[in-house]
Amino acid sequence: MTSAYPEIYQAWKNDPQTFWGKASALIDWYKPATKIFDPEQGPYGRWFAGAECNTCYNMLDRHIEAGRSDVPAILYDSPVSGQKARFTYSETLEQVMRLSAVMQDFDIQKGDRVLIYMPMVPQALFAMMACARLGAIHSVVFGGFSADELAARIDDATPALIIASSCGLEANKTVSYKPLLDKAIASAKHQIKHCLIHQREQCRCELITGRDHDFTELCEQAAGREVPCTSVAATDPLYILYTSGTTGKPKGVVRDNGGYMVALAWSMGALYDIHAGDIFWTASDIGWVVGHSYIVYAPLLIGATTVLFEGKPVGTPDAGTFWRVVAEHKVKVLFTAPTALRAIKREDPEGKLLHQYDLSSLEALYLAGERADPNTLEWAEQMLNRPVIDHWWQTETGWPIAGNPRGLGILPVKHGSTCVPMPGYDVQVLDDAGHPAKTGELGNIVIKLPMPPGCLPTLWQADQRFHEAYLDEFEGYYKSADAGYMDEDGYIFIMSRTDDIINVAGHRLSTGSMEEVIAGHPQVAECAVIGIADKLKGQIPCGFIVLKAGVTQAHSEIEAECVERVRDQIGPVAALRTVLTVNKLPKTRSGKILRSTMQKIADHEPWKMPATIEDPQTLDDIRDCLHQRGIGTCSEATKPAA
Ligand code: COA
Ligand code: AMP
């Protein structure tokens, strides 16, 4: 079959407004847009200006009104708790209305922020949808973050209510959320008056009288209460999702209602080939954008069934768990991060567990979140004998920038490439001076403004920061901060970041924020953190410290304290395990730390002594230090000179 993609992409390019105007028919509106795109609003314009809608209505009520009440909306499968549950569209609406009623009793109104700190449980989805129903703006915080990160989000979003679970369940331990929540609330400047606590049997927590309220009890009391959907402007925020920036202060990515719904609904058919009634499983976490868009919003917007999986690719109980879920729930499309596949491959390289299951329902596997290494991708293709599709996007965009639009007719797969840009995205590659790079030449990947519907219109109460972070460097373009190239067929290859972001097990983290934390150690004079290659997690952070003069404390003790500080102040998910003491950091004569050369040394890549280096000995020291710890230094390029 030839793909309709070239024609559709061209149709968008010729007339973006007509394209998105037509796509907007996938959504029910209370009031249509007065302008499909209004270039006068916001930092670069706004989509569906003048329109009114409600996202929860589009996810639940309209499917029920269309007679699909008994279709499953959520299939909860939790090997870590041993629980499974199934919620039809009408059962989901009942739960969402109860919670909306409870939130109304706490006086939550349109535009109020609600912070959600919950693991992969159905109640978290109900909370997100209840916010959408009331026009409140949710901000979900990933469970693997520390109390400090939670406090930073509380202070930035200034929520009127927090909805939290008592604990999360990891493969081999229970993580109590409540002590982290209490610590965050105590240290935040913004005062929290009310918390709704969802008590899990695995670890119930103490409730603070007056502030904490029992989620389940209040929802049960609200049974049967009807809460209508609040009409909001298409351009009103649906949520804020914090992501790593280049400083310790996370960026509050804002998502609107109307444009997001249109883009997600369009992507489900065209990119994933998923339609009403299909079973779609995104194995990620609701704390990340992938979870927001493709566990929660997109599947329900189009009337499909979403699988909510609370577990890990390995260890819950084994590397066959993903395939068990696919077989049991008849999943049509699975979407996960390459790290998850690497973990499965490591434990079940020959697919012995995989072959135990009937995977006949599965049509394709999608990967995103980090670079998909061709080895892993080929392994998955061989094991599954189905298309394995790498696609590229960011928290900022909310939906894929580039991918293989299977719903329009699959294009040839090229390993190492995230395929072609989706309609809405005019992707270009520029050199550092802003000139177009040649075909095949590495450069800065940018998107010509305006960004399509669904992408961030700005950062939460930080238009200036939005401009500085994304728009100022290449005028007229959004800077993705990814480096890569395009080939002669227009296929995109994403190679690395141009900033300090690293990708650890598909989790986006800033080495700059880790440096801020380590620099706070009283004995540390200066430090650098780089991302180094890791077979399982893609990248892991590695820290280098220079101690203050006269420090007598054992170096190993200080290094361990730095590791602990990052775990405590950022969270276990940062996965910083190695900190090494050196005499001096390698710097240019103007004082810039040579992080990328350090990274090349650690990753066994060829490197050259930079002409501007202040003291060549410092790089030799880094090399020796890594060598002594068995990190890097195995290749010719990095072998210490004889
Ligand atoms: N709540 C609390 N703690 C969490 C957490 C959460 N939601 N998620 C991770 N953590 C903790 C882990 O328990 C671990 O703690 P530890 O240092 O005490 O052991 C730490 O954070 C690092 O976790 P993780 O990166 O998950 O590493 P792991 O070694 O436990 O597991 C994998 C390795 C490959 C199985 C796991 O990283 C994985 O499933 N990756 C896929 C990620 C993914 O789907 N990303 C989606 C982005 S699209
Ligand atoms: P996040 O905002 O957490 O979704 O992370 C976005 C970043 O992850 C991107 O800017 C890329 O650096 C990286 N990324 C996401 N998907 C891919 C992919 N398919 N290939 C390479 N890198 C990716």
Automatic annotation (TrEMBL):
Listed name of the protein: Propionyl-CoA synthetase
Residue ranges occupied by any AMP-dependent synthetase/ligase domain in the UniProt entry: 68-449
EC number: 6.2.1.17
One GO cellular component term noted in the UniProt record for this chain: intracellular organelle lumen
Keyword field contains Glycosyltransferase: no
Domain AMP-binding enzyme C-terminal residues, every copy: 514-592
Family, per entry: Belongs to the ATP-dependent AMP-binding enzyme family.
Acetyl-coenzyme A synthetase N-terminal domain boundaries: 5-58
EC class (word): ligase
MF terms (GO), sorted A to Z: propionate-CoA ligase activity
Gene3D superfamilies hit by this protein: 3.30.300.30, N-terminal domain of ligase-like
Alphabetized UniProt keyword annotations: Ligase
Lineage: Bacteria, Pseudomonadati, Pseudomonadota, Alphaproteobacteria, Hyphomicrobiales
